[in-house]
Amino acid sequence: MIKAIVFDFDGVILDTERIMYLVMQNMFQQYHVSLPLSVWSQAIGTQHGFDSIGYLEEKAGRTIDREAFQKERYEAFIRLVDREKVLPGVKSLLEQAKHLGLKVGLATSSRGDWPRRHLKRLGLSNYFSSIKSWDDVQKVKPDPELYIQSLESLDVSPKEAIAIEDSFNGSLAAKRAGLYCIVVPNAVTKQMPFGHVDGCFKSLQDVSLSKLIQYFEDPKAENS
Question: Does the active-site annotation cover 15?
Fold first, then answer.
C-alpha cells in the first residue's frame, strides 16, 4: 500500500536545472569555450559528477580563479532562480497527496537551506513532513542514502513510497533504495536514459496520483 511520496527538488519543484545550464553556457562563452549538454549532464542530480572548472581550464588552456568563477556563477544563478515560480503540476500533486492522506518528503542532493528557502518562498513548506539533503548523508545521489533516510524519517518501507525525479542520477538513487520512481524530464534531462524507472511523464500536470497508486498496487488496473 502506497503511504508516501518523495520529491526531488531541483528540476522537479523548481526549474533550476535549465537555469544553471544557461548560466554555465554564458560563463563558458566568456572564455570562448562551448559546454555541450552531453558533458554538462554528468553534473545533474549529484554533487560530484563533473568538475566544470577543470573542464573549462582544459578547453581554454588557462588557469581559472575558482573562487571568483563560483561567486559569479552563484550570483547569476540566484538572480534568475529567485524569480522562478513552482513548476506546473507540483501544487496539484501536493494537494492530491494531502487529500489521499499520504506523507510527503523531499530528498535532494543540494544543501538543506536551499530547498527550505524556496519552499518557504513558494508557500509549500507545510506540505513536507521530511526533508533530507546533502547535509544529512555521507553520499548524495546516485547513492541511495538520501532515499533510505527519507523512508526512515517517513516511517515507510520502500514499496510504500513513490519518488518523483527528473534526472538519471536521482532516479537511479530512488530505484537503488527500492522505491517506485516516476520521472518528469526537463529540457536539460530529457536526453537521459530512463529505462529503469516505473513511469515517465511530460509534466506533473499529467499525473493523477490516485491512478498512479492504483497502478502500482494493482498493475492490472492500468487501463481501468
Answer: no
